[in-house]
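Internal ticket - ligand job 162, magnesium ion:
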Amino acid sequence: MTTDFRVGQGEDRHRLETGENLVIGGVTIESDRGTVGHSDGDVLVHAIIDALLGAVALGDIGQHFPDDDPEWEDVRSVDLLRRTLDTVETRGWAPSNLDTTVLLQSVTLAPYRSAILDTLGETFPRQTTINVKFTTGEGVGPVGRGEAIDARAICLISRLDR
Ligand code: MG
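stdout (structure tokens):
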């Protein structure tokens, strides 16, 4: 039985503007506003990558995939997540469970839950338990005013038996 565990947390925020795409957990969301910036602006996947990197103490997403590096310009965030999971496994660890929260005011995300879980489930090892939670900004702050989308993630990893 595994007794060697690590935990990592990650969070991300992206600005929202009209006419941009909104991608959450690799799933395109129908929305009149989307995330501004490099790549697909997938806050949930960015938070998950930081949680994984935190668990293996390998810095943050900006060090591994700099957003001013053209190599990562049009890469899907899910592909960056796949690379990060490879790194975690190479270091001898496996994600046990992943818990996440997306904070967004303007769009009800519940209808997208199963698609997001499917995408994450296809990316993570089969044995990882994955949960996604949705909440709003209660009408206050950058999330509540519809100016931003936030995501948080926490991931427990366990030592692979070899
Ligand atoms: Mg980000």
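Auto-summary: The beta strands are 5-18, 22-24, 27-29, 33-35, 93-103, 129-135, 148-159. The pocket of magnesium ion is lined by residues 12, 14, 43, 46 (CB under 6 Å).
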